[in-house]
Amino acid sequence: MHSRYNTNAQEKRSARAQAFRSWETVTEHSLLSRLAA
Question: Which of 23, 27, 26, 3 is nearest to 11 (CA)?
Fold first, then answer.
């Protein structure tokens, strides 16, 4: 049971990191396009 919770927490953490990375990329692109405009 403990290991299952641990795995679930790790998956949540990696999913959050992935979402943050994609959001960061989108923000970066919008900032660059705004600067170039």
Answer: 3
3-state secondary structure 1-37: CHHHHHHHHHHHHHHHHHHHHHHHHHHHHHHHHHHHC
Q: Which residue matches tokens 């989108």?
A: 26
Q: Measured between alpha carbons, how far is 35 from 33 in angstroms, rounded to an integer? A: 5
Could you read off the pLDDT of 12-34 as tens digits, one per residue? 999 999 999 999 999 999 988 88
Q: What is the pTM of this model?
A: 0.58
Q: Rg of the Cα trace of the chain? A: 16
Q: Side chain identity at 23, as an amino acid letter?
A: W
